[in-house]
């Protein structure tokens, strides 16, 4: 394998701009992924039972049966809602013995809170212009 060097002095500029556009593309993709995640998280929290599960987990880790008893829901219903919360990165889990313990995902909730803060800032700025 050999390398060929060009005498064209524009090559470094093309390489620099190519890398710049590549980085911008990655940022754009990351922003789109964050927006999709925010939408998924808001949809997950829109259900009253999932919001009740989140509120319950503020008190600490619980396994599905504990949540079921506490919230008066069937274990199947709780498992269904927990799966949606897991996919939305609002809840995390760990296995201990035969029980899966669920807890709040603080990073997921913090990311959602930051997105909502940004949205509220945009709304505030719009009102100031009016």
Care to give the gist of this entry?
By secondary structure, this protein is mainly α. The chain has helices at residues 11-45, 48-57, 64-71, 75-87, 106-129; strands spanning 62-63, 91-96, 99-104. Strands 1-3-2 form a three-stranded antiparallel sheet.
For the largest beta-sheet, the strand count, sense and barrel status come to: 3 strands, antiparallel
CATH class term: Mainly Alpha
N-to-C order of helices and strands:
HHEHHEEH
Strand order of the largest sheet: 1-3-2
Strand content: 5-15%
CATH architecture: Orthogonal Bundle
The number of helices is 5
The general outline is elongated
- Overall pLDDT, averaged? 84
Distance between the termini: 63 Å
Rg over C-alpha atoms, rounded to the nearest angstrom: 23 Å
User: Which spans have pLDDT < 50 for at least 5 consecutive residues?
Assistant: none
Overall structural class, as computed from helix and strand content, comes to: mainly alpha
Q: Please, how many domains?
A: 1
How does this model look, in words?
The chain is mostly helical. 69% of the residues lie in helices and 11% in strands. The protein starts with 10 loop residues before the first helix and ends with a helix. It has a single domain, classed as Arc Repressor Mutant, subunit A (Orthogonal Bundle), CATH 1.10.10. A hairpin with a 2-residue loop joins β2 and β3. It is elongated, with a radius of gyration of 23 Å.
